[in-house]
Write the structure tokens for this entry.
Amino acid sequence: MVRAGDKIAVGISGGKDSMTLLAALAALRRFYPIPYELCAISVDMGFKGADFSPIERYCERLDVEYRVVKTDIAEIIFDVRKEKNPCSLCAKMRRGVLHTTAKEMGANRVGLGHHFDDAVDTFMLNLFFEGRIGCFSPVSYLSRADLHLIRPLIYASEKDIRYFVNHSDLPVLESACPANHNTERERMKNLLAELEKSYDGLRHRIFGAMCRGEIDGFREVGKIPVISDDE
């Protein structure tokens, strides 16, 4: 996922996943055999009371360049458009800001905090609601933006990330989004958790099936291929 001379822009929502990714990539610089640079970006959605100063101080400690980009995304989605299902449009708008800012900061890769559980949830959401077999890719290339998206936590479970956060000093922020914990993704997560009570290891079997089927670049062994947005 990382090549010599890369500059990786980590997308920071302030949640446990993105903060864990930032901490891991910052620590990895000390001994990773391939040199790379790191920066971090937060998209300020415009929710009242949003305070990114704890993350700014944390980035200073890590010697990581950090930028907060102010937007009116929250107002557009909730006040102007009054979206009943805001997550898709919100994600699309945030990605646009993130990719543009990453290019402005000289990054050629964007690091996202999606983990093992996110991959399984996304696979099942696509199956349930779109009737298709698919997921986001561990590594993808956006030709129009000339950026690689990487997801280094793809083999890390949410349980392990939560344990790390509980035993660290990461400044994790609570989401101010009114749709938080009231989405189809959250319901899918709860459904799989309930099913795992009867079918232990269900998530791992689904993930294993994704790897064996080489769904969107997932593989069990060897190099993870790059999926282009042109494909």
Summary: DSSP finds eight helices and seven strands in the chain. The chain has one domain: 7-228.
